[in-house]
Amino acid sequence: MDSEAITGVYGQVCGLSTPVSAHVSEEQLPEVGVYKVTAEWSQSDLVRSSRLRYSQQWTLITDSNNHRSIGTVLTPGPLSPDGSVLIYLQGEVFGPHNQCLRIQQLDLKSKKTSTLVDVVNRPQNGEFAGVYEAMPSCCWSEDGHRLVFSSACRNWKELFMVDRRSQTVTSLSDKSSRVYGSWKLLT
Q1: Residue 165 CB neighbour total at 10 angstroms
Q2: The pairing of beta strand 50-62 with beta strand 70-74
Q3: Which of 24, 33, 45, 177 could form a disulfide with 62 if both were Cys (CB 3.0 to 4.6 A apart)?
Q4: How many whole angstroms separate alpha carbon 74 and alpha carbon 53?
């Protein structure tokens, strides 16, 4: 699939104009084709003498038959840096709003799904209370072994890191600074 076709589909799916330039990298897995599209826009305002630049990365996953039809479009965040693992949040269907969610991971090579962080039903005082927010757009560590996210914890929001190998969740927030407010991961 050439970059013109991918950027055209990208423009149709996201509702934005087709990017000025795009870089496409391709990885062929046995069942699917994974295309990472890095698209860049730029706009010049001659009156104010300013220039606006915007860059975004999307992942396109093709179907298993001919690798020509795009079956899934992922916004930045859920696909690991090496393109082998997809993460997503899962909650109870028809469950309450703002419910505790589990972080699931799908290995795209083996097609196996596993739970990375499970629902916390009754958190102990001072322990991780569960995932209550969407994953940020840039949540992966460079090596793909850790995820960073923010979530509610009692009356505050805190930063957390989960190690995919040990499945341990670690707080990154400075507990002594709670007097000054909550933590939020900005990406």
Answers
A1: 7
A2: antiparallel
A3: 33
A4: 22
For the residues 59-67, what does the mean pLDDT come to? 63
**Which amino acid would we find at residue 84?**
S
Is 185 part of a structural domain of the chain?
A: no
User: Please, which residues have CB within 8 angstroms of residue 19's CB and are 6 or more apart in sequence?
Assistant: 7, 10, 11, 39, 40, 41
- Do 101 and 166 have their domain in common? yes
Q: Tokens 């509610």 identify what position?
A: 152
What's the pTM? 0.58
Q: 70 and 90 share a domain?
A: no
Give DSSP secondary structure letters for the chain. --HHHHHHHHHHHH-SPPPSEEEEEEEE-SS-EEEEEEEEEEEEETTTTEEEEEEEEEEEEE-TTTS-SEEEEE-SSSB-TTS-EEEEEE--TT--TT--BEEEEEETTTTEEEEEE---SSPPTTS---B-SPPPSS-B-TTSSEEEEEEEETTEEEEEEEETTT--EEE-S-GGGGGG-------
Count the domains in the chain: 2
pLDDT in tens, 12-43: 655 555 555 555 666 666 666 666 666 666 66
Sequence letter at residue 96? P
